[in-house]
Amino acid sequence: MPTIGRLLFIVGLLAAIVYGGAYALVEVMEPPQGEITTRVPHDRFAR
Question: How much is the pTM?
């Protein structure tokens, strides 16, 4: 059954590429540090 083996190889290869891309994004990208302040209107607390 070489077709099943080939299918599993391709699926595994695609999963490895996706996993490697996600890992690379985590390692390379750094989120900007900053303080976020949001005012909430008083009428939202009245419910």
Answer: 0.58
